[in-house]
Amino acid sequence: MVTGVLRGVNEALDFQDIFPVRDAFEAFCRETPWGALHFTVEQNAPRSAARTALCLKALLRFWEPLQSARYLFKKLDAVLTLEDLMRAACGWVMDAWCPMGEAAVRARLEDAAERMGRATREDSVEAILREMPRALAYARNLKHRDVLNNPEFLRERLTMLAPGAFERVSGACTSDLLGQLYAWDRQLEQS
């Protein structure tokens, strides 16, 4: 439903200057349990570390009521608890920002949200480098996989990104990193 409303708003605005409206709509929805859940799980746009932290903090405020429900995610025959849903949808957050794998899901998300909320550019680079092996595992048909698998090359390229471009990958979301890997692969092909 949230996606349908947002699509309708975008159409009503004729897709002109939609980002401020989208941001306001998201902020409004994060004040409800289902809105917080939606914007945490639905990764439909590049997410900065700061924005992801806001989503996680909103979700964590509603943890108790959301924990009473069961969820479907990607596999329609698999009913998930909230913890299972967060592992499936946000495992990348925990791995990149809170790599201590044995803690409870909620505790790891709390730690990740705190770290993302106060992250420096260098903190984000380190989180991105922790998440890059997962992104590379999903990447297909890279012509320069060996170069893109080199942490020093990745660190150098990340430091060269303009602030806006870096902000879009600063959350270390696997899908956002995949897009950046493909862009770098194309740049290497042209050089």
Please explain how this structure is put together.
With 191 residues, the chain is mainly α. The protein has 12 helices and 2 strands, in the order αααααββααααααα. A two-stranded antiparallel ribbon has the order 1-2.
Primary descriptors:
191 residues; mainly alpha; 2 domains; two-stranded antiparallel ribbon; globular
Helices and strands, with pairings:
Elements: H1 2-12, H2 19-29, H3 33-41, H4 49-61, H5 63-67, E1 71-73, E2 75-80, H6 82-97, H7 105-117, H8 121-138, H9 145-148, H10 151-160, H11 163-169, H12 174-190
Antiparallel strand pairs: 1-2
Helix pairs in contact: 1-2, 3-4, 4-7, 6-7, 6-8, 8-12
Largest sheet: 2 strands, antiparallel
Oligomer: single chain
Biggest sheet: strand arrangement: 1-2
Domain count = 2
How many E strands? 2
The helix content is over 70%
Report the sheet-strand fraction.
Answer: under 5%
Q: What's the pLDDT, averaged over the residues? A: 91
Question: What would you call the shape?
Answer: globular
Count of runs of 4 or more consecutive helical residues:
12
Pattern of helices and strands? HHHHHEEHHHHHHH
What is the straight-line distance between the termini?
45 Å
Low-pLDDT ranges: none
What gyration radius follows from the Cα positions, in whole Å?
17 Å
SS-derived structural category? mainly alpha
